[in-house]
Description:
Keywords: Membrane, Signal, Transmembrane, Transmembrane helix. Residues 1-22 form the signal peptide. The chain is mainly α and 362 residues long. The chain has one domain. 52% of the residues lie in helices and 6% in strands. It has helices spanning 8-21, 48-64, 95-115, 117-143, 154-161, 171-174, 187-195, 207-212, 218-240, 247-265, 285-298, 317-320, 335-358, and strands at 86-87, 91-92, 165-168, 182-185, 277-278, 302-304, 330-332. The chain has a three-stranded mixed sheet with strand order 4-3-5. Strands 1-2 form a two-stranded antiparallel sheet. The chain has a two-stranded antiparallel ribbon with strand order 6-7. Strand 1 (86-87) and strand 2 form a beta hairpin. Helix 2 (48-64) runs parallel beside helix 10. It is elongated. Residues 14-20 and 308-320 have low confidence and may be disordered.
Amino acid sequence: MGLPKIPIQLSCFFFFVATIQAYTVFKPKCSAPTAEANYVAAPDSRGTLDILLKSIFTIFACTWTIHHPNVPRQYHGYVDQNPKSKLCGYLNLGPLSWRLKGFLKSTGRMILTIFAPEVIIAVAYNDRLATREDHELLDKLAEGEEGGKVEWSLDHTYYANMGGFVIKKTNAEAETGNGYNLHHLSGRDVYILRKKRCIGKLPNITQRELKDRVKSDSLIKAISISQIIWSTARILDRTVYGLAICALELTVLAFALCAIAIYWLYWDKPKSIGVSTTIDRLISYERIKDILVEARTRAYSTRHIFSLKRTRAFSSRSEAVDGAPLRIDTIREGKEFDNKTFWALLVGVVLFGGIHVGGWRV
């Protein structure tokens, strides 16, 4: 006669009970004031839950609020005005699916930052270098515009490199792009096309109008930065006075320093602009694509930082000029850009990893 079989659920229950009993719990006793008081100081001990909640909140602030995404695909940019906005390819909730897609992209960027914050530092630094190089060209172009100088600032160049300027396709041309009738241009694309008189004059958007398009709340940004700085100062203070810090707090310190570096690199970049600006084109769309292919092959090139195959241009003509919104992980190539981006990546690795290594002595 065999032994009775124990249900798997019951086995799991006993396993978790045994695991929980293996932990010890310390409950500090804090008596109430014996006399009436206007202010009661916090106890001089820290609870596990206090450390956990503060650490999680700071890591969230370090990985969610630091991102400055590019201009997304426009909801109104489809010929049939009914874009394919199914969530995960199955659930179609119309505009709600469109918003959920944006939320999932933000979540993906946060997860990437948790696993590899040094990559975000490298991308932000490359973006800063490319924007400052393009700004010199576009600023001179804005000064020589017909009818007087067009207002142009570093914010405008960042907006251009975010894919904020678009040209509109005809309905027939949009059919080759899944019905999307907008072509997003980079800052260098705008410069090349305007220099060759392929598009109309640069849009006269004031810096105030551009800042009004920013979705970022200054108060939320200030709270996030304050929380990051406060957590960093608190952990460093405990380290200086020889007080104990846990491994999670070391991780918080590493994320906080990386977040401060990313905030500094993105300081001039507008945050979360969701609206594009249309530029009139003066020639056919096919001719514009030919010019962009030639420019991206000879003048400059870009690639995705996670691309395993490194190319000086795009792998195909359609990939080079598909006009899709610019990906946030797109970096500018070139000897100078590659070297500086590599050093920025190395600094990020040392900054994030060095804190954990240094924590072995704490």
